[in-house]
Amino acid sequence: MDTVMSQLKGEGDETRFRDAAKILKNGGLVAFPTETVYGLGADATNEEAVADIYRAKGRPSDNPLIVHIGTAAEIERYAEEVPESAWKCAEAFWPGPLTLIVHAKPGVFAPSVTAGLDTVGLRMPAHPVALELLKTSGLPVAAPSANTSGKPSPTCAEHVAADMEGKIPYILDGGPTGIGIESTVLDLTSEPPAILRPGAVTADMLRPVIGEVNHSAEAADAGEEAPRAPGMKYTHYSPDAPVWLIEPDLGQIRNAVTRLRGEGKRVALIAPEGFGETGSDWYFPTGRLNDPASVSGKLYASLRACDGTDADIILAATVDDAGIGGAVMNRLNKAAGGRTIRS
Ligand code: TXA
Ligand code: MG
User: Fold this and answer.
1) 301 labeled binding residue
2) I need a labelling partner for 149 at 20 to 30 A (CA). Which of 31, 66, 295, 343 fits?
3) pLDDT, averaged across the chain
4) For the structural domain made of 243-336, what CATH number should be given?
5) Ligand 2 center to residue 257 CA distance, Å?
6) Which of 38, 105, 185 is the best mutation target for the ligand 1 pocket, counting ligand atoms within 8 Å of the beta carbon and taking the most?
7) CB 326 within 8 A of CB 318
């Protein structure tokens, strides 16, 4: 299959949106940008189309997909027993990087969307391209991140093409995404509501809106993998070489690099700007020190870039836990599988 990469330019975009919407309506897949990461979209009511998403990604069929909607009012159409908290969250955070798990209305979505669960994740994304596609197609769009299962989520159209070329008909290229890590997943069917995957909307932001929120550091997100035994879950978002976490301290990183190179290892470094003089074989500057939001936008691109090197080991600098930093650390911990270099 030929993959069309369609760059949005302002002028003539109506045709591009119409083409993309037509593909969706005919059961095809369209990759599109959101404010978090690129999604791989299909008509959420079309079972064959949704099955194609799992095939293109190599995703286990028991890991449910998020359904993207163009207005908050659609919650009523797709969910039942909607708690007041859902409306409050939609009012406060939509469009935005928050996925709400609610009870699905039976018989609306293709069975594969919810992977047999009676709940569904709904999200109204805050990206003009995603919103325009939802509006033009008029469909609820099931869309996981547009990466091959196990790879970091794509934050630009080139990442999507690297994983999906030849497997999907159409990529809407809206440039790099802003936030760079996936939405917060909030389960509103449990009491109190629970964060299943941390993201840019944090527990501290949710509490003033809906009250108590459960947030364990061991958030249960199954990522691209099928839900598995705890302890087996930190095995994705991974580049080919092993990732080790290290504090963003010039002295510590220099020492670690010197020791590793002394053992004959080639070292790639993911660290904030200003860490170019550590002696590492590759350095991918990733945001600024003490500014986790600047790291989140670049993290996945840097993890992917490491796969383009011959590194034997990747050192990745940790970030502050505050704000979106907690979500960044969640992804870094998964990439590293808990491996940390301590001085
Ligand atoms: O930012 C995002 O959320 C991106 C963009 C494209 O919207 N999408 C995304 O989708 O990250 P995906 O499929 O890669 O991650 C969806 C996560 C998975 O961890 C899945 O297990 C969880 O949401 N999820 C989906 N439906 C669920 C449900 N009914 N109950 C519990 N978890 C659910
Ligand atoms: Mg994903």
Assistant:
1) no
2) 295
3) 94
4) 3.40.50.11030
5) 31
6) 185
7) no
